[in-house]
Input
Amino acid sequence: MAEIFENPPQIDAGYEPLGAAELVDHDGRSVRLKAGSTIVEVSALAPDLFRVGAFPDGSTPRYDSEAIAKQEWEPVKVSMERSHKEITLSTSAATAHVSLDPLRVSFADASGRSLAADDEELGMGFSRRPDADVFTQPLGPSPRLYKRREEGERYFGCGERTSGLEKTGSYQIFWNVDPPLGHTAAFNNLYTSIPFSFSMTSGRAHGLLFDNPGRVEFDLALEDEGRAYYGAEGANLVYYVFCGPTPWAVLDRYTELTGRTPMPPLWSLGNQQCRYSYIDEDEVREVARGFRERDIPCDVIYLDIHYMDGYRVFTWNEERFPEPEKLMSELREEGFRIVTIVDPGVKVDENYPVYTEGRERDLFCKTGAGEEYHNAVWPGICAFPDFANAETREWWGANHSALLDVGVAGIWCDMNEPSLFIPKQSTMPGDVVHPGGDDPKFHAQIHNAYGSLMARSVREGLLKLRPDERPFVITRAGYAGLQRHAMQWTGDNSSWWEHLWMSMPQLQNLGLSGVAWAGVDVGGFWGDANGELLARWAEFGAFQPFCRNHTAIGTRRQEPWAFGEPYESAYREMMKLRQRLLPYLYSLFDECHRTGAPILRPLLFEYPEDETTYTADDEFLLGDALLVAPITRPGTEHRHVYLPRGCWFHYWTGERFDGPAHILAHAPLGQPPLYVKANTAVPMAPDMAHTGEGTWDPLTLLLYPTAGADESVLYEDAGDGFDYEDGEYARRTVSCEEAAGSVTVRISERLGSFVPQRQELRLELRGFGSAPESVEVNGEGADSSYDEETGTVIVSLGETESVITVEIVR
Ligand code: MIG
Output
């Protein structure tokens, strides 16, 4: 694995930038040029989205890719201008400048700001030196792209990474591996590769997706170099530029191109518990009982590899799990669902139908000599499905009936980099062949897509097996666009304080790279946690889009109660808070599903004009209403918190802060620094042991009114199934405005045909110094109360579909 530690020289001897070009063709959105033997196409796909493709063998442009969900774009109004030196393509929002001699491409947004401009000298082109030292087969000319770093440009994104939020000046490798234990800053690539750089330049955002599922490298521009490098080993050069200028606009367009996060089943947002492994039925029952007896919310328990018969996928170990169906239906009564792990390796075993069928139908990867490719993983010698083949994906998906038929609720895709045992923690050699039906490829050409293709096959399979349920698929490996198929967890972190901190930049950069539905193992996987670390981790984990506690074989127990008090109580309170926040979290998933906006988001996403946020990677926003700043050091109850502009209220004490401000927060165990933005309603459910225990009745809208105005959105639907796609949802906007001591809360009419089953909608208005003078609902006297001790006004409302206006005079 030595190559992941070495940064190869940026400009290799075989590199030749493209020279002079001439126009050969154009249509309503594209120009096609020829530079030497290379065909280059520049297209406006949408007003703020351009695509550039360069095809060195002069072939017809091709853009099919596992990353791309949308190939056909609506017509876009483009005006083309042409001189002997330059062609420009202008939309209502941006311009592509194509200068012809030499061929260089640059972009500008509507304000004229230059972005993603080719480096004058190095531009784009191909290196014709075969990279024979990395792969045994030459992959043809290697694409290289050099972009100017604009003054003040800072880089983020890049998907799942180690280290901090900002990536400026770093060298990023995109090559999916099962990395060595530690996940330290000494290397940056992990299990998933998203070759997408997200830039901020003086408050304005843009992005660049370098679409190549083979090995990709970025050099994100040291200041003195003034340029960024994007390169791959072989294949055509294809990239997309998202002109922004807001972070919202970049993510919206990026996820329109690469696909949006599907709506999750509500149960999968509940607390989840895992261990490698809960070894048999008794242990699973005992863990489930542990949650209910201790009143700690939990919805899901995982079965890791020991549930299988000799690690054969799609089988059950009859000694450990003699009656899986009974187990799962009993657990279901208690509000637990079971998710099982599935690895890609299929044991080579003549008496194992999954293997013999895959072999007979020719669905496995091959060696260059045409033999079935074998390597060792948990089951021993295995064959590996060729997920690039649609027939394989269908077959693999259908095999999940063995799990779903007995009641498994979701599927956990592991080891899908793929990770192999020979040599230890290696991956497939680049010259393994994916026959791919009739489109054979070397593994090196599609390596980073293997995990996504597996996840895709599982999602599609689950949709066929249970068409009325939203699939729950969790994956370790993937490529750009993986959010369409699965949610991502960040693999084998360690029970270290450093990894508790790193979870934040990791999830924030994933969110900036389209993967909003993600989470890290709470408590850490490798090594032993301790009570304080585990409880502090829960204080962070409760706010993740995905909240699962997991730990490795041979480590100390890590269930919430493993270390006794006071840690157990702190863990309980955090999971109760998460459970109560589900209406808020679910509303954020709806927003993400429609717009690509991250759920757990960096401050810069909301406050791009504030450059202090660019390095604030030990705190984050959940939606726009909650700011969380977890404690990530042992033995400390205080930390620095940066609050951006606006007015913030400390959730536990009600103390008010006016940002921008640097403050010292006090955070005793069980009370992580959590701030609520003024005038932004946070919808909250009642206490429940699991998501299915009851309806959200009453639904509380938590609000801290203050002079000014803001609003938020409440989204509800059945929590599973697809009726929401036919309008069966309920969406309303809650605005809150205060002027001259008078607070107006307006709950808009309910959009959509879903009718929430509840009696009461409750306003909880905090931060009152004394009982309000008057409270009126729709102009009439209201059912309200005031709690002197907490300064809280409670207004009880009925659930109606029409507008509700509440007026409170302080
Ligand atoms: O070689 O299935 O990241 O979560 O518990 C280790 C056993 C394989 C790696 C996963 C981890 C899982 C473990 N797996």
About this structure: Residues 1-6, 132-137 have pLDDT under 50 and may be disordered. The longest strand covers residues 638-650.
